[in-house]
Design goal:
CATH topology of the largest domain in chain B: Rossmann fold
CATH superfamily of the largest domain in chain A: Class I glutamine amidotransferase (GATase) domain
Number of domains of chain B: 2
Number of helices of chain B: 10
Oligomer: heterodimer
Mean pLDDT of chain A: 83
CATH architecture of the largest domain in chain B: 3-Layer(aba) Sandwich
Strand content of chain B: 25-35%
Distance between the termini of chain B: 21 Å
Strand order of the largest sheet of chain B: 6-5-4-7-8-11
Number of strands of chain B: 12
CATH class of the largest domain in chain A: Alpha Beta
Radius of gyration of chain B: 23 Å
Number of helices of chain A: 9
CATH architecture of the largest domain in chain A: 3-Layer(aba) Sandwich
Low-confidence stretches of chain B: none
Structural class of chain A: alpha/beta
Largest sheet of chain B: 6 strands, mixed
Order of helices and strands of chain B: HEEHEEHEEHHEHEHEEHEHHE
Mean pLDDT of chain B: 88
Helix content of chain A: 10-25%
Number of domains of chain A: 4
CATH topology of the largest domain in chain A: Rossmann fold
Structural class of chain B: alpha/beta
Chain lengths: 600, 299
Amino acid sequence: MGLLNPGALVFLALVPALALAYLAHERSSRVTVSSVLAFRALHALRHERFAGRPRFDWKFFLELLALTLAVLAMAGPYVVRHENPIAVVLDNSAQMKARTASGGTRFEKAKKELDAMLAAMPGESAVSVYLTSPEPHRVNAAPLSIAGARSAVRDAETTDAPADNGAIVNLLSELSSDSHYAKVIFAGARALAPPVPPGITAITVGDPIENFAIGSFTLKRESFGSQALHASVTVANFSTAPKTLKVTITADGKSLASAESNVQAGETTVLEFPSLAPAAVYRAELAPSDGFPLDNVAYATSGSVKSVSILFVSPTPDDAKGLASIPGVSVTTVAPDAFSPGECASADLAIFEYAVPKEMPSVNALLVMPPPGDPVFDFDTVQVRAAQITAWRATDPLAYSVNFRLLNPGAGEAFGVHPWMAPVVDGRQGALILRGERDGHRFVATGFNLFPYLGRRNLPMSILTLNILGYLAGVGANSGGYRTGQPWLVPAGIESVILPSGKKIAAKPGTLFNDAASLGVYKLVGRHGTIALRAVNFSDLADSDLLSAAPLKIASRAAAPKTRAVTTKVPLTIYLFAAILALLALEGLVVYRRRSAAGA
Amino acid sequence: MAGLPEEFTPAFLARLEDLRIRTRQQFPGMGKGSHLSPKRGSSLEFSDYRHYSLGDDFRYIDWGLYGRTDKLYIKLFKEEEDLLTYVFLDASASMAYPAGDRKFESAVLIALALGYVALASGDRVMLRVLGGSGTRPAPVFSYGRNRAIELAERLRAVRPGGQIDLASALARELVAIRRAGKCFVISDFLMMPNVVTHGLGLFTAATMDVTAVQVLGGRELSGQGLSGDVEVVDAETGEQVRVSMGAREREQYRQTLLRLSREIKAFCLKRGMHYALYTTDRSFQDFFLRAAADLGLAH
């Protein structure tokens, strides 16, 4: 037991002060009365009391006690409790749905073994339960008892999202080096590579399983102007022997086509399905079935042919002609003076050429050579006659496949340091391309004009432009389609999303949609009830290889003892305040009852 | 009425006009009045016969008796005279405590109200102050209701103070007044009961009709607001008593005071006296009109 703020004990000096004040108040006072006749008997009574005096009122003792407790509460008393906190990390990723040789799933096996381990723990242990999918998160805000933890583990469910091994490694690394946990238990499909940090106990249920998987399922138009679609399905054989894999395409409940191929062990192949009849949703199913059925099914929608709507705000509308020539892009041009913020609502993205909006746009936006000093973006620009690119961020999605050495921006402007946009491409005088996010929207600013060169002679410029438009339209970095567990940007005009389970979730255009952990077709509901379909499939083939999963390498950040006794300080202040309130309530009650009795 | 305390509103005075002093025996007065006197007189109340003497008024000869006895008898009637009313007001120091209770002021109001009832009934009133300081009322009878203002002015000059021995003081007054009549003694009677009974007993022995009015303060009765250890000092004797006052002690003190009052009341009723207790936390007008019978008044 100790005190968090022992200095507050100086206020205990108030206690004797109160006692002195009381004694002074109780000091014999001299009062002239009409007659002492009736007081004589009382005088005799006074001598019956031990030592005659002093006389103390019970209320005085009560208030003295309350004051002492208040001072103690200010001092912050605490008791030291020795705890045995445990962190339980349960892998609930899609791979845990795989069936083991015993018949059950990996997840059921992991939960069973974890439950047995928790049942053997000391009863006073405090347990924090973490799940790993769709992203690592803690299930309980406050530590649970053993029984609570077992219940939380029993209630845990898997998702269709693949395991994010990097995030799991980071979580385990943090927990193992966290001094608040005496023990970390990890139950998952992957083993931990030695040396396992002390304090981590692993329950590995990832027995090798032969698996056949669909890797990708893409649709494209058979030819320009044709209604028929062409499907490509990538399949893989993660087994130890060659296998004939058959894929059947169905659409709206009807079987459209099927194809099969003998795939060598550990190999992948692509099955083509030409001239598919138009349909809203296509479903590819792989045979034969295996222990991990999730990746034997994939979906695709014809929604990918939907054009991207661009609002082009520029004093030179002819610059948009190059944009309009891109297949699947529709452009609406508006002069800067005629632009109103409400027009952004019907666009997937906006482009402001030589102009900036008077308020923050409600869609993702590209700002081409914005004028300096505007109050919304506050660009600091320097005019450059011949901009030269000196550096770029190669890993940035805007820089993907762009050969900046061949890119000649020409005359333009260079940006100074911006408060919330980061440079992607730098020149001698400053940044030439800035990128940032604000209020859930993406913004890109370029110091040179992209569009006169689009589709003409400057190929790097065209790639850069398409990268920027793809990034702003929310499709640029995800050409392979949407994957379970990966958030995506809500397109313009969408108000809600209906999950494959039928659950409806409100959505805001331009923001990330995070509830994409289920495999299937999502319905994106627009303002007037219009519905766009979006297929979300299992992750890439790397996550379908259940035969040779590499163990997780946990880096121990600090040398920690194998078993640690964690002590926590449990403050008693709240109990003291409760006692004070109870004392005052008792005094009030007694005084009230006495007065009521006297009044009666 | 101007000159009287503010409690004497016209409505209250009108109610006082309806009252008159009731006595349990007949006292000779000093003039014509409304109370039967032991003297022979000309009232309608028959008293006795005597033999006719030369010069007697023929109108009082009882001719019926003459017819039966053949002797002349004269009918004698009782006289109706005014009542000699004495109001003794305790102005000792004890009447000034507790200060907030205004015991003496209340006692003055009672004295004035009794005096007004007597004067309005055509009786004579002598107001005597026991103890106290300031100009005392002269030992003369007042007559006529207008004298009530004069009585009020005289009492206004009196300040409570000093120590009195009630028995001795009443004995001295009894010697001084000489003539019997109705006697009101207004005091807190906070003294040994035998002193009170001795003093009041002197008046009954002198064939006086006595009403004892005890005035106690509201706070005085409830413990005078005292709490904790207190050294109480007697306002008259200076006697000091150290006590510890709590709720239990206050209640015990109150019961002691009430017991003393009950003893005085029992003595008064046993000796044919009237007794009334007024506590100053009550309305004076309400008390006076409700306790008229206890005060020896009648409508």
